[in-house]
Amino acid sequence: MASLQARHSRKCALGRRPDGTTRPRELAAENREGCTCQPIYFVAVCTDGKKERIELGRNFKLAKRAQTKFQAQEDAGEYQPQKNIGFSEWADEWLRSLKRPKANTVRGYRSTVSYGKTVFGSKRVRSITPADLSALLERLPELGRKPAKPKPGKAPQPRPPMSASTQAKHLRHLSACFEIAKLRGYTAQNPVRGLHVSQRPTAQTNEAGYFENDELPVLFAEIPAGLYRAYFTLALHTGMRLGELSALRWGNVNMTDAYLSVSESYTDGVLGTPKSRTSHREVYIDGGTVEYLAAWWAECGQPGDEVQVLSPPTQSGYLNPKMIGKQLERAMSRAGIPKVDSQGRRRKQHSFRHTYARIVLENGKTLFWLQRQLGHSSYGVTEKVYGHLAREHRQQVAAELEGVFAV
Fold first, then answer.
1. Same fold across 87-145+160-199 and 215-400
2. pLDDT for res 296
């Protein structure tokens, strides 16, 4: 029989009987009347004549659910004793089991594991509680502070602490780690799920910085003709990511039906699939962009299908994000365009993707159409980033309807 029990603190009022004698600190979980502490709940399960205690945290409702689950497994003869494994050992095992081809994704998981090892160490996975996660979250801002890189002749500048958005990302990674640990029998519950919403970091939504329509002609006049102007032109006219444009080949360009086939992305020195879960999508383009691509193809010497549309003469053969950023900064400086937009948002090469989204929404396209073009994993992502632009356009259209109704 899987019984739910609670371990109370030494100072809890339940620790003494009315006659003044001391009670055991571990009582039945339902015996909560008069409790003045927040006890730690655990379930006691007997297997092969041995009693096993499985810590479940301080949330009574979650502990009751876990007890019901254990009882069902015990009744069905499916219960398996939890295995003892330290977090550091399990985290390494989890990383090795990941089937993630993207370098950025794997790097993010590794940094999460590193922070977890610092706080949890070799503590058993089954013993990690929501309170332990709260302790990790308290330390994350400073743990994630990257050391400043000193520049010659300049004093090193302190780096800001880890943002709430990054903390939320690490918490999601840990949740995935503990979910797999549950499947392996290393823990009874995912402690991340035991965190109250008030204990979780809130990811900040950063609105997109973009270029204004009257700034674009001035900016492009300062971008040298050739490879970089071709990149910025296609980035503005398609909304594609840098990695996607870098990996785009002439065989992916359909000038007859006016679309680009996106199935690869070059990021951090690795050629893989695009960022979202959509491994393939078609980006439709207008007639002017088709004519531009035809002229660029001729200027490049009419290359074959396997040649990249934007092929720099570098060792890697792919566009360098740092060089793209430098070219943009120089062009903006020559054109007298500030580095931030009217809302104080920084503008960089990714801003061409945001500018594309702004322009198509202002010209009557829907968020659903934009989602398919940009390759977002869901409509919700598009609405979260660009919903405010769509609302502004709808408000403008509604205002233009003034006086058109008969009554």
1. no
2. 96
Sole residue written with tokens 């096993």: 52
CATH of domain 87-145+160-199: 1.10.150.130
Let me know if 342 is exposed, middle or buried by CB neighbors in 10 A (0-12, 13-18, 19+).
Answer: exposed
* Domain 215-400 coded CATH 1.10.443.10: yes
Query: Is 301 a residue whose pLDDT tops 90?
Result: yes
SS (H, E, C) 43-99: EEEEECCEEEEEEEECCHHHHHHHHHHHHHHHHCCCCCCCCCCEHHHHHHHHHHHCC
Q: What pLDDT sits at residue 315?
A: 66
Q: Give every CB contact of residue 297 below 8 A, 6+ residues apart in sequence.
A: 250, 253, 303
Rounded-to-integer distance, Cα 126 and Cα 113, Å: 17
Domain boundaries, the chain: 3-75, 87-145+160-199, 215-400
313, two tokens = 């003469």
pLDDT one-digit tens code per residue, 86-123: 999 999 999 988 876 566 677 788 999 999 999 999 89
| Side-chain half-sphere exposure of 386, counting CA atoms within 13 A | 28
Q: Which helix (H) or strand (E) holds 232?
A: helix 227-238
DSSP 192-212: GGGS-GGGSPPPP-PPPP---
* 238, 247 Cβ separation under 8 angstroms: no
* pLDDT tens by residue, 52-72: 777 777 888 888 888 888 788
Q: How many CA atoms within 13 Å lie on the side-chain side of 108?
A: 18
